[in-house]
Amino acid sequence: MENEDLESRGVKDRVNHNNPTTSYYHQQQENLEREEWISWLIPLFVAANVVMFIVTMSVNNCPRNRDFGRGECVAKFLRRLSFQPLRENPLFGPSSSTLLKMGALEWDKVVHQHQGWRLITCMWLHAGVIHLLANMLSLVFIGIRLEQQFGFVRIGVIYLLSGFGGSVLSSLFIRNNISVGASGALFGLLGAMLAELITNWTIYTNKVGCTLFLWYLYDTMNQLTLQLY
Question: Domain Peptidase S54 rhomboid spans what residues (predicted)?
């Protein structure tokens, strides 16, 4: 009897495994479990970037350190968090000297002064509110979905390595300007999303819509990749 039960159970398992309805049920269950996963790493990255921007604006202290020949500080009610004159920074942010003090990427300092740490710090800095909002919105749209699908470890590694790689490329090709922003990390996540789209191409019902959405994100981030003078 026990042998018969084991044999019958094995037959049922094989039938269920080959049953398309059962496979669809398991796939739906996996999708539900994935949707229930709460993303925490991407919100943490967003919070870190926002905090760094606030700290940068506090160090900038426009009312005390501004160049009087370039105009008045913007949003004076923010006091030391107010923005540089629009002539100097039209993105509502700090001065270039403050960004450099906080760790912005500059070729001369990395190569000749051996300040390699700037390859990491520059990806947590932003040129202004507009720059910050554009990058963080892109990060939320791209990153949360990828973290839910692939987990925080893989996405965290992709984000950090892509940001570092983008900094290296910037230091090689941009020698006369300083560079800040998370654009390199975002392009890495965008590449991961594109790879996922190509791998699972057959299961997407709206292939044209997905492709256009990725192209829109790429074009937006490409337009917002900033190098400061």
Answer: 114-223
